[in-house]
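Q: Hi! First time doing this. I have a protein sequence and I read that you can turn it into a structure. Is that right? Here it is:
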Amino acid sequence: MSTRHSFLSTTGLIRSSSSASTASFSPSTSKSTKSTLPSFGKQGKLRNFRNLKSLTLSTKPEPEKPKPEKPKVRGSGGVIPLGPTFIVGISIVISLFFIGSLSFAFIGAEDAPVFRDTLDSLADQNPGLVLIADNVDVDIDEPSVTLRWSVVACGRNLTLPGSEGTHGDSLCGIPNIPIDIYLDGAEKPEFSFNPAQLPFTSSNGHRLGIQNIVQFDGDHALDVHEARLYPFDTYQLATTLRAVAPDTSETIPIVRLLTITDTSSFIVSPSDSASYVVLSGSTDQLPSRDLELSIVRPGEARFFALMLFGVNWMLAHSTVAYTALAWKTEGIVNVLTYLALSLATLVAIPGVRSVMPDAPGYDGVLIDQIGFFAQMLLTGISTVVLLATLAKRELQRLEQNAPAEEFVKERPAPISKGLHKLRGSSTSVDFRHFHSLSRSFMGHAQPPTPIWEEAEPNISPNPFDARGKAPAAGFRPVGQSVGASASSTHLPSSKSLYSEWV
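A: Yes, that's right. Below is the predicted 3D structure, encoded as structure tokens:
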């Protein structure tokens, strides 16, 4: 069956549908297409070309919009990398875990009283008067040590009823007799205790241990021979105490002198021993108690002090590196950056020095001689060098950016009219006319001209022959034209020469 082509398909205005494209349309599509086809007349003319164009465009399939692709997770060797959200979250969890683990150090800080076991053994084996140093305050700048002493009696016969339980021990309490305490052989008592001054509690009848009644402070001089070795400084203290009953003037034996061993800045190592004194005018040996203290820095304080000492040296060395980099690099911006860092280091070094644990003043201790003073000196020199480098670069920049001096041509000075006419005339003026004129006036022969031009060949270059005659007709002086040579035989008058020159 033959296919009949329309006029538009044969002329190329529309394409004829192929079998494949025809098969791709559904029946419903073909029906709608047939209903919307334009009508043609017998002459094959198109009635509505616009409807045909819209029909052709509507039959084309619309392109599908690409769906957004999900980010692909790429791995290496079967291991998928962690995302940024997970990394931030796990970092926060680890930080909280670290802070919580450090907080466990405060658990158990309120343990049993430090002196309870010692007081129990004393109450059972050696009852008597005990002095306990609850606080040890070491002042390096004074230098001195202040001990806060508490008067304690251990034993049933020495304890004031209702005051048991001092320092966590049920057998030790406040003494039941008046006591005077003499410190370091003083003539007057350092502390006087009277149990009658203690009040009773209304609810249970117990005696309150008022600190100012049962405690006193003792100031002791400190041996500071090794103070310059901070943080490895060690201090020594020796003191003696004696207790006397003011009513009977009898000496009360002191069985122990106890002190705390750990303070915020030092570790105290006590050592007490029994002793006696002999007063002047008497041979009686009065019992007393001696105490020796060795005070050193804890290991943690030494560690942090040395670490800060090293940090300061690193900061000082960095300023030297800044100076070297500024010397090698070009430009002013880098030098300004290094100068700002050096100035910040100059301010930071004293700050780091001040945060050392219980550091002494700037008194020239060893750690300052080999550290702080040298660090400040090195940093200051580096800062000065950077300032000089900055000034040099700035001067060089100003020289390079300076505008070049413009050459201004000076205006020539005004000239006279006569000189202007002379310059405007011909420059080929032959001044030998004046020489010829002078020769005619003086009557002397003109000396031979040293250079002659040869006008004709085969003529001798000598302007004068052997008899001293005038030059031949073929010779003329250099710079003189042929016409001039011809007229030179007749010397002009002075008036004609002057008029010609003017």
